[in-house]
Design brief:
Two copies of one chain form a homodimer. With 239 residues, chain A is an alpha/beta fold. Chain A folds into two domains: 161 residues, Molybdenum Cofactor Biosythetic Enzyme, Chain A (3-Layer(aba) Sandwich), CATH 3.40.980.10; 65 residues, 2-Layer Sandwich (Alpha-Beta Plaits), CATH 3.30.70. Helix content of chain A is 40%, strand content 26%. Chain A is built from nine helices and eleven strands. In chain A, the strands form three sheets. In chain A, strands 2-1-3-8-7-6 form a six-stranded mixed β-sheet, sandwiched between helices. Chain A has a three-stranded antiparallel β-sheet with strand order 9-11-10, with helices on one face. In chain A, helix 2 runs parallel beside helix 7 and helix 3 crosses helix 4. At the A-B interface, helix 1, helix 2, strand 2, helix 6 and helix 8 of A face helix 1, helix 2, strand 2, helix 6 and helix 8 of B.
Chain lengths: 239, 239
Amino acid sequence: MTNPTAAMLVIGDEILSGRTRDANMHYLAGQLTQAGIDLTEVRVVSDDAPAIIAAIKALSAAYTHVFTSGGIGPTHDDITADCVAAAFDAPIDVRADAAALLQAHYDSKGQEFNTARQRMARIPDGATLIENPVSIAPGFRMHNVHVMAGVPSIFQAMTASVLPTLTGGAPLLSRTLQVLRGEGDIAGPLGEFAQQHPDLSVGSYPFQTNGAYGANLVVRGKDAALLDAAMIELAQIFA
Amino acid sequence: MTNPTAAMLVIGDEILSGRTRDANMHYLAGQLTQAGIDLTEVRVVSDDAPAIIAAIKALSAAYTHVFTSGGIGPTHDDITADCVAAAFDAPIDVRADAAALLQAHYDSKGQEFNTARQRMARIPDGATLIENPVSIAPGFRMHNVHVMAGVPSIFQAMTASVLPTLTGGAPLLSRTLQVLRGEGDIAGPLGEFAQQHPDLSVGSYPFQTNGAYGANLVVRGKDAALLDAAMIELAQIFA
């Protein structure tokens, strides 16, 4: 049985200009691997409506799930919700359920629920809200697209709300063997090993430490017993 | 005059599984911004030939330059060079110029230039080599696609070799104003400011520190005088 697949769409000029280093991709990748959902593609696009809409359409059609990060705040450059609505030809406006959450939140802080903040309650018709325990303004799920905030603490909280609702496959397990030889010395036997184990994914990640070459050989698979047996074999090859 | 555009393609299962956190995207983003080349899209795909070939074709057709990271080592999972050749229908084999570089390197170290290492000399016909001062095995440029290593130190050295050969536009300058108010309070006047300055890009990046909300307002443009005048105006709006 193959696992469900996923793609991620990171939205934001600040990532592409080098101003901000994205943290959400690495976080989501680890969470999805544990949940048995295969993250297969990531795209990063700028705050540009046609680019966002095209990416949502392409990824939504190709994968079981899509997760977006960024562009759902109150400022003029936050256009993700409107782009998701456009991608699915859905009407969008300030929605009562999201507005009620935010109204109560700002009332409790004695702050005005002004026009800018009402922007965060723009949710496409037919979408389900995703809880935001950090700053209340919700994300949402529209068809197979999960729209989440770019601020890492909120992204992580929303991921925690969403993942238990999804059906995962078998988590991908991994084992690592560190070999203190250059990749060029091990590539031949490693390639044969990979060919003999078509059910496992075999990767080699070279490093250099104190002038010595080495590689982490990482074997991934869904069956722990099979994986353990393969690692014993691999250790014997490079003993 | 608009700047040349660029896309990046990061290749590697280890990024998508969450095992490794990519460092090259953030590095390249900063370098391209300084060089006046607009990084417009990034994609991350796994070590899967059809996915790599499709991404190279799409990005090469859409942008002035494409930079790839990863998959050019000696092991069985290093398939980038063959995928680039396939994307451009170019023949590929061990090429004499690349093989000579590597042969001399391994001779000097008393190591064998074996079949696995010869894999790193597979270069498509018509490609130009990119120098690798760290570990010799070269990258290459094929049409508008620059194929570089995934190991960050080598990726950075190759970027340094490539960027001076490209024609950039005006570097994108940025100025930041930090405002200690929530985004919801500033979004209205900030949106008006953005509308009044169509030549500038205006972004708002919220943060929370010691329980207080704030935002970095980042204004980007190519004309320093225009940018400075706009920042004085912005400071007055939020004084």
